[in-house]
Specification:
Elements lengths: L10 E7 L2 H13 L1 E13 L3 H10 L2 E9 L2 E8 L2
Parallel strand pairs: 1-2
Antiparallel strand pairs: 2-4, 3-4
């Protein structure tokens, strides 16, 4: 489902494998649905999109943990500050 499937629930882990534009547009809802100290994994975007993703994530209070790339695809891991 899309971000509407979250329905004000909170999670310890969120896997968001969607394209860059959707990730950026829905990131606030993902962060609001993540428990304090919870982990979110973003994927489905290219490694050259990392700076844009990271800027948005940091502005919403996420802490960068790590990133992996394969064939230009990016996986970025963040934790929600407690």
């Amino acid at each position: 489902g899309d971000v509407e499937a979250l329905h004000s629930r909170t999670f310890d882990l969120i896997l968001a494998n969607i394209n860059r534009n959707v990730l950026l547009a829905d990131m606030r809802a993902f962060v609001e649905s993540l428990h304090s100290g919870g982990v979110i994994l973003f994927s489905g975007l290219y490694e050259e999109d990392f700076e844009m993703l990271n800027d948005k994530a940091m502005s919403l209070g996420l802490k960068f943990v790590s990133k992996n790339t394969r064939n230009r695809w990016l996986l970025a891991r963040y934790v929600k500050n407690e």
